[in-house]
Amino acid sequence: MRRALRWLMAACVAIATTSAALAADLRPLVQTMGSGGYSGTEKALNQLSDAGDPAAVPVIEALQAGDLYVRKADGLVVIARKVGAGYALTDPLSGAALGEAAAGAIDRIKVNNAMRRAISAALGALTLMSPDPAVRRSAADAVFKSRDANALDALNTALAKEKDERIRRAMEQARAAVILTAGASDADTQAAVATLAGRGDRDALALLSMIAASGASDTAKTAAAAAVATVEQKLMFWGALQNLWYGLSLGSVLLLAAIGLAVTFGVMGVINMAHGEMVMIGAYTTFLVQQGLRTYAPGLTDLSVLLALPAAFLVSGGVGVIIERSVIRWLYGRPLETLLATWGLSLVLQQAVRSLFGPTNREVSAPSWMSGAFELGGLTITYGRLWIVVFAFAVFAALLVALKRTWFGLSIRAVTQNRPMANAMGIRTARVDALTFGLGSGIAGLAGVALSQIDNVSPNLGQSYIIDSFMVVVFGGVGNLWGTLVGALALGSLNKFLEPYAGAVLGKILVLIFIILFIQRRPRGLFALKGRAVEA
Amino acid sequence: MSAEDTLLYLDGVSVSFDGFRALNNLSLTMMPGEMRAIIGPNGAGKTTMMDVITGKTRPDHGTILFEGETDLTKLREASIANLGIGRKFQRPTVFEPHSVWDNLELALKAPRSPLKTLTYAISREDRARIEDILDITRLSPKRDRLAGSLSHGEKQWLEIGMLLAQDPKLLLVDEPVAGMTDAETEQTARLLCDIAGKHSVIVVEHDMSFVRALGVKVTVLAEGSVLAEGSLDSVSANQQVIDVYLGR
Amino acid sequence: MLTRFFLMGLDRKAGLVLTVLALLAVLVPVMTLIVPEGSPWHVSIFTVSLLGKYLCFALLALALDLVWGYVGILSLGHAAFFALGGYAMGMYLMRQIGPRGVYGNPILPDFMVFLNWKELPWYWLGFDHFWFAAIMVLVVPGALAFAFGWFAFRSRVTGVYLSIITQALTFALLLAFFRNDMGFGGNNGLTDFKEILGYDIQAPGTRVGLFLATIAALALSYMIASGIIASKLGKVLVAVRDTESRVRFLGYNTESYKLFAWTLSACMAGVAGALYVPQVGIINPSEFAPASSIEAVIWVAVGGRGTLAGAILGAVLVNFGKSYFTGALPEFWLFALGGLFVLVTLFLPKGLLGLWAQLTARLPNAKGPNAKGKNAPNGNTADQKGM
């Protein structure tokens, strides 16, 4: 770490010295700008531009803005900006302050219209040929936006030298934009439209549709109109894909919230209205783990989310076991009373957390590996969301394996299918009940860890998920984990596809109405168990 | 046999649950006034057969006609019951929070719409009818007891009484003597034989002595279809029946 | 026939309830309007409105008990019907403000002026008439309940599933009424009422009048409900609660029975909401919150599910407790309410009245609970199977 810092400092020093050295070479050129009238200034300008040193950029910018002056006393070329009655002088290359001067003590270097073009071109050329790739890139983007015909030469020059593929593309697009605006031969126009269609984003679409409406030539118009159609199609495709991603992302959040419920409600038939509070407890556990690490092991803070996973599973699972042993076991076979009792528990848990941690939101910060985003084609994907999707599927898979492949899962299934028989076979049913409920609650705790990254950690966190979770489980079909998966993803996508048309709230309302109607059609959900047992 | 003269006509009825065929191409006919005993091993489809007749389960294939014309597969439970098909469940199902009298009053043949029941006032004839049934089922002394407080046998009888109050054309009786003492079984057999004079009855029963006491035509079901049909003696002699059911 | 219907429901318990209500109807106005303010017997206007609010909740609880206690439908969305009735009344009260609003627009309520609306939406038309609003108080919740129930009962959605989709229903309405463009005042709801039927809504006389109207509505609803329960219809309903399929095989169309009770119950809840709004002076979307519906369920559970008197008792007791605790120990209230849910379901499944019935039944000279089945569907027989 320290070594890296030292290296970085050394690099900075190196850059500073090289630019100082270059600046020294430019100084005589800058000095000549003040002499020889228009032609002298223009000559100096061209030489500055040809030198290809970005250090000259502030000088040319000052010239463009009319801030470049000659100090009468010694003929030094300076940048002067009005301060009070006089002017503050700075060195054009180094930016060092050179004191103040009265208005009469300096002469402005004048610029005529012919020179203005040269100035723009010089600026474009200098930034387009800057050694820093980021500067070249933003210069190309700037030209794309301004579509200034003066930049065309500079662009061509820069393109001839450019090696970086992505910057080349940006420059080509900028060039295409300039050509389309200014007008060119048919072949060039066609090529430019093709380049822009290849870019295919909203900016390209805006430009193309502008050209299609009022282009420089008819060829440009027709070509642009055709390109608009393809770009629109492409945008729609990526838009749909983006929606799908949002849907997947929301779906995986729903899946996380609902999957624990699929165990307690789906497998055990227990209506746990305090399920949301188990999620909330998981989120607060994450908060506590992070606080603890910040205090005692600041170096590990980035790992707090990972360490919070087992902690949240154990804490929420433990609370679940306590709830099962103290309340729920007395209410088996009375689902509606279980619903009421667990609702009461949810109120108690909420208030308890509110009393302990206060009613306000708690900050859980994202680790570095979960922040940021990357682009995939036309998609923008944030790492946080990506990890949550991965995590949701991982939890789902782990649960599936636990239920199908382990002895514990076998006992759970045995107890739910035939309690007396399981008992007779020596399975301690009471213990299996408690552990199953604990498992469901623990998974809710895991969901809490994930949700702490994207939602406010407050006592009401669970409340906002409980109805959605029940909708997912009921929609997918009770007692069927795959149903929960499909239900979560389907409802998530439906929500996100409705959102652009109906808005977030109305979209949600429509989804709720859809579920209500769906339950009427198929009271047992998407993947209903069929058979006599269901009727009973 | 044509469907027209029959009271109940099942032809090629099949039902399956998750791949398990509960009824497999079952065909059966009942004449008006007939009494029939249905026997068969567990899982033979006896209860499912009652379910499809009463509309609880929809068959996948097949025809079920009542009185030769009404297609039962299209109707819901309540409509089928109102056509005149009454059912007694395997486990006695009575309205436990209501008194014996109220149970019979609810079953009594009368208009079934909510507004009619809201304004219902018991008539002299209805009262007499309930008294009759109380006598027949020997529940007269317990008329004000809550049905939930009755013994198992009494509940069975109350449910049969409710069937009588319904006055259906066809009675489906599922294991009426399960859990009864011998004396009660005998009384029940006599009661059913009395009823059979005026109604058609299908009795599903395991108890062979009870079936023998009924002395009626017997249908043996196995794996969802009819294995044999005839008098108890003739089906008892059937080798297939012995193999799948009696012999074990 | 109507008298016979009401008489049928009149047993000892009903007599007691109606007597208490009649006493309140006489005593409260006297103690508020006639007894001078300094006297220890004086009841303040604030208390009258508070009592009126409790009685509105009691009416909601009564409506809920009718479907939960007697038909076994646990509605987690009854507050939606309450709120819809309340909004219908609130719309009438908004129209009565006339040009006295902040913006002085004679037609548009303030929030519409604020949102730059130019004219009254069509669904606000007619609400300047009291009779129209009064009909809507019944029709809107009733129609919603009928449509919802028609689908749900026909598809045989029962038990927990039904409870969950009633909750989804009220949640959807909550979200909808939060939207400004629904035209019901969005977040803030409807408030700043001035007059009802031409009387100043703040005046003591009006307040007492509203209180009396609430008592009348509660008493009438109680008589209707107990009349229904005592009728053969009521017996069918209880039978549906416990063994629905058996009732079907007797030839009853159980869907229409459930629909009848469900719709009636929603109408009662609507009336409760309509009486609530002028007494508290505001209606906003939070009334639709799923939590308020579930809270109403606990009132019924505390008093005694399946006893109409218990529902009323529970609503008044729990809300009294809520008023007390939220004032004195605000932190404690949610613990108390949550604990109540747990304790009542675990230890008092038949509520306070059920406990009372058990205690009195142990006394040697207590009357047998089943004198000719009349009060059969009461607390002492409420069975767990319907849950």
From TrEMBL, chain A:
Where is this chain's protein located in or outside the cell?
Cell membrane
TM segments?
A: 244-271, 303-323, 335-353, 386-403, 470-494, 500-519
Q: Which GO terms describe its biological process?
A: amino acid transport
Q: Where is the secretion signal located? A: 1-23
Superkingdom, taxonomy of origin:
Bacteria
Tell whether rRNA processing is among the UniProt keywords.
Answer: no
Gene Ontology cellular-component annotations = plasma membrane
Q: Which GO terms describe its molecular function?
A: transmembrane transporter activity
Entry membrane topology: Multi-pass membrane protein
| Annotated keywords | Amino-acid transport, Cell membrane, Membrane, Signal, Transmembrane, Transmembrane helix, Transport
Q: Which family does it belong to?
A: Belongs to the binding-protein-dependent transport system permease family. LivHM subfamily.
Protein name per Swiss-Prot or TrEMBL:
Urea ABC transporter permease subunit UrtB
Q: Which organism is it from?
A: Azospirillum cavernae
Its taxonomic path starts at:
Bacteria, Pseudomonadati, Pseudomonadota, Alphaproteobacteria, Rhodospirillales
Gene this protein is translated from: urtB
TrEMBL record, chain B:
Q: Gene3D superfamilies, alphabetically?
A: P-loop containing nucleotide triphosphate hydrolases
Signal peptide residue numbers: none
The question of whether Transport is a record keyword is answered with yes
Q: Which GO terms describe its cellular component?
A: plasma membrane
For this protein, the record's InterPro entries field holds:
ABC_AA/LPS_Transport (IPR051120), ABC_transporter-like_ATP-bd (IPR003439), ABC_transptr_urea_ATP-bd_UrtD (IPR017781), BCA_ABC_TP_C (IPR032823), P-loop_NTPase (IPR027417)
Q: Which UniProt keywords apply?
A: ATP-binding, Nucleotide-binding, Transport
List the Gene Ontology MF annotations in alphabetical order. Answer: ATP binding; ATP hydrolysis activity
Query: Superkingdom, according to UniProt?
Result: Bacteria
Domain ABC transporter per the UniProt entry, residue ranges: 8-248
Cross-referenced Pfam families, in alphabetical order? Answer: ABC_tran, BCA_ABC_TP_C
Matches recorded under NCBIfam families? urea_trans_UrtD (TIGR03411)
Listed name of the protein: Urea ABC transporter ATP-binding protein UrtD
Q: Which organism is it from?
A: Azospirillum cavernae
